[in-house]
Write a structure and sequence with these properties.
This protein is of the alpha/beta class. The chain is built from six helices and 14 strands. Keywords: Signal.
């Protein structure tokens, strides 16, 4: 006995069986549906240290560029998949502590910090002190946290190398004079990377240990624009990965001047 399917059901089955399967890790991250602001950094490839930063804001018709793109520098070894708000990826390098790569993916944006008592920003702001550290020791219970040595004790920051007042510890170094936290490895899994920030560069194009660096005027405008009520996200991807994931991750098209 043969079974005859209704025409509408047969058409539905044909559509389902002829659609290509989505690759693993190409589901849109839930945080993208809530975000109203995006900070997007793209580079030419995994090993590139130079990129472009483009801001976007979402209105009723979709994502629109919020300001002209500008130059940034990232890790001295390029970028690698980090731990963030996106599905696991199986192709490409993986971020590790001390590898000199900036974490690729999608991340929340945390508090702002700097040397001054206050700055123009709606982000939560913390003035760094001579006793402020970011703990980059993987086996420390304070791993991947900014702490004050006066509160946690000298033993708690033993072995850490991330002074947050670089100007006092490194001959006036301006890099942390203004910045904000990129929430990479928020669960502080040992060895997957720590203390990832957006901050100032000492000179144009100087690569970092894994952060994203930019000119002071660019950081000033960025901090003033960011609004935690609009659930901003930070995206960093090599251009080929951005193109591969753009539709699946609901990422906006890049203007010509934002392309590395």
């Amino acid at each position: 006995m043969s079974l005859r399917l209704p025409h509408f059901l047969l058409c539905t089955l044909l559509v389902l069986t002829t659609q290509p399967a989505l690759a693993k890790g190409t589901t849109a991250p839930p945080a993208m549906s809530q975000a109203q602001q995006l900070v997007v950094v793209t580079t030419g490839g995994w090993d590139d240290t130079q990129g472009r930063l483009q801001t976007f804001e979402r209105d009723g018709t979709g994502w629109k560029p919020a300001a002209p793109a500008f130059a940034v520098a990232i890790g001295k070894q390029g970028s690698a998949w980090g731990e963030g708000l996106f599905p696991a990826q199986h192709e490409g390098p993986r971020k590790r502590e001390g590898d000199g790569r900036s974490p690729a993916g999608i991340y929340g944006i945390g508090e702002a910090f700097g040397y001054a008592p206050s700055v123009d920003t709606r982000l939560a702001y913390q003035q760094m002190q001579a006793s402020s550290w970011c703990v980059d020791v993987p086996d420390s219970p304070l791993y991947n946290r900014i702490v004050d040595e006066r509160q946690v004790g000298a033993q708690a920051v033993k072995g850490a190398s991330e002074h947050m007042r670089l100007d006092l510890h490194n001959d006036g170094d301006p890099r942390y004079a203004r910045g904000f936290v990129i929430e990479h490895n928020a669960k502080a899994t040992p060895g997957l990377g720590s203390c990832i920030f957006a901050h100032l560069w000492r000179k144009p194009g100087e690569a970092t240990a894994g952060c994203t660096a930019m000119a002071p005027a660019s950081m000033e405008a960025l901090q003033a624009w960011l609004d935690p009520a609009r659930r901003p996200l930070f995206v960093l991807l090599p251009r080929p990965e951005y193109q591969r994931l753009q539709r699946a991750w609901s990422l906006p098209p890049l203007p010509a001047d934002a392309q590395p």
